[in-house]
Amino acid sequence: MAVFSDRRDIVILGGGMVGMTLALAAARAGLTCHVVERDDPATLTAEGADGRASAISTASWNLFANIGLGPALAPLGCPIAAIAVTDGMKPGRIDFRPRPQEGSLGRMFANRDLRLALFAAAADDPAIAWHTGARVTARHRDAHGVSAVLADGRALAGSLLVGAEGRGSPSREEEGIGAVAWPYHHRAIVTALTHSLPHDHVAWEIFYPAGPFALLPLLDDAEGRHRSALVWTVPERDAKGVLALTDAAFAAEVTRRMDGLFGSVALAAPRMSYPLSYQNAVRLTGQRLALVGDAAHGMHPIAGQGLNLGLRDVAALVEVLSEGQRLGLDPGDAQLLARYERWRALDVFTVMSVMDGIVRLFGIPGRLPSAVRRLGMGAVQRLPMLKRAFMNEARGVSGTLPPLLRG
Predict the structure, then answer these.
(1) In the chain, count of helices (H) and strands (E)?
(2) CATH of the domain at 192
(3) Spatial separation of the C-alpha atoms in residues 187 and 277, rounded to whole Å
(4) What value does the mean pLDDT take over residues 298-307?
């Protein structure tokens, strides 16, 4: 028999970066949360557990700063001063560089550093009841509230259930929310590099027909070595062979694709890989249910927009719930969830469609398609207003922004 714990406003299933950011943002807005995470935080933040890094857009950085994480995170992020986009290192690239008064295009953070800051803040917040190493065995939603039953018999009660469990979200599947999805038949290989030449805070997106090859600036390490994060997309059929290369052979292949951009290169972290696919839920809400992050949408890592899209979900949902709180509405009120759905659906669809289109466009092999692409890129390079529109989208500052995303 389930034993009910204290009732809170929100029950968040999934305590990853998006789920925990939601809990902290909700707490700052006066909302209480249960957060359920199946893994142990010590495992998630152990050295080498996750060698990935994330590009945090300007708007996402504003969110972190507005919920009090600025002082902890500021020294750990590497500013992105510019983005260079090129078709196989051939002539005709685009350079995105904001005006001095606009600041950087974003910041690069190790995922481990983001998690450590989020977890430390959550552990100190009485508005957040954090249940780690916990497995959900049942979910209940009705006109009066929600609950999640854990394997130890506890039932966590609230007014709104939030699915933040990732792409295979049981909350989404249980609600019967379908998704538009397809595989890319590619795999992302992720690691960190040290290199002899500085990156000058420039992020490189190098498109090859076999897949994008991204170099993202990181802070120099403790020994003063220059570092970058690598996200190398390879066809699934080739991934096993690339992963089997020795570190020296892998570094040589990376150097060849970089065309000597950063000088001599060496691996600075283990290689990780994961399959790539497109997945977009047909709805973001249900009865007393909201989906955020990868539970709602999963996309190609091109341009590093995946996490930022999830953080925009967080800011919009918290704004909607805060407004409802001021009006005396229940957090699970259908009107509030409908507003969240309207606010997020178009942005998610637009960003994911554009990113999918770019992946497909640059995946067409041959000299003629390459020449056409480079002609178009050259035209964009010469049109400042169009470049600025692209930059604003990358920084997450276009459209109607919730207060949490504003500086």
Answers:
(1) 12, 21
(2) 3.30.9.10
(3) 9
(4) 88
